[in-house]
Amino acid sequence: MSESQPRFEFRSFSPDFGLVEEKMRRLSPIDKIRESMEIYIMSAGNHENNTKIRDNLMDIKAFVQEEDGLEQWNPRMKGEFPMAVAVIRDQVFPAFGVSLPEFSRQVYALPEYLNEIIRPHPQLQAVHVFKRRFGFMINGCIAEIADVFINGAKIRTASLESVDTTAIRQARKMVGLEEYENVNYLKAIKRVVGMMDLPDSSVYKTKF
């Protein structure tokens, strides 16, 4: 695979990762620690486009394919606030898969976009997410353990990313993530805010 290709990802969520985190820290020194405050826009009409806003920048990633239980995502759109209504109408809302609202401005700053377009829409929800991310390198994969606060509710996430799906599968075994469900941010946030149900299975009683 070429390094220019979108990476595949395995990600899971749990109240705690215990031995998984211990193994990650034992296999690799912490590469970097990052904190960010982001706003995810959740849509009842879409499960394949992941929209988030950070530092006045909007990033929409689209699901490409699943291979060996791993997900590949690719950038669909990038934009900056203030944002022209033509961009919101023609590029952003098609990713949500919901009806268009009425627009009263030609250009929207971020607070206007959230308060006048997103929050009044019955099928959309703005969710505030704070992340404290600890980065590692495991078997050539970008690895991460992070504390995630979704509208203030704390959960933890562990992930592995690479263009090489074999390397990810090997890394999952190395750190003990084989029995965890692959859950992307879009699905995890919807579960926390009540837009999607948790799986009805006993295997998830101690995991998210």
Helix and strand arrangement:
Blueprint (H helix, E strand, L loop, with lengths): L7 E7 L3 H10 L4 E12 L5 E6 L2 E11 L2 E11 L2 E2 H12 L10 E2 L1 H9 L5 E15 L2 E10 L2 E10 L2 H11 L9 H9 L15
List keywords for this structure.
two-stranded antiparallel sheet; single chain; 5 helices
What does this molecule look like?
The structure is a single chain. This protein is of the alpha+beta class and 208 residues long. It has one domain: Beta Barrel (Hypothetical Protein Pfu-838710-001), CATH 2.40.320.10. It has 5 helices and 10 strands; from the N terminus they run βαβββββαβαβββαα. The strands form 2 sheets. An 8-stranded antiparallel β-barrel has the order 1-5-4-3-2-8-9-10, surrounded by 4 helices. Strands 6-7 form a two-stranded antiparallel ribbon. It starts with 7 loop residues before the first strand and ends in a 15-residue tail after the last helix. The model is unreliable at 202-206 (pLDDT under 50).
Q: Over all CA atoms, what is the radius of gyration?
A: 18 Å
Low-confidence stretches: 202-206
What structural class do helix, strand and pairing data support? Answer: alpha+beta
Order of helices and strands: EHEEEEEHEHEEEHH
Q: What is the overall pLDDT average? A: 93
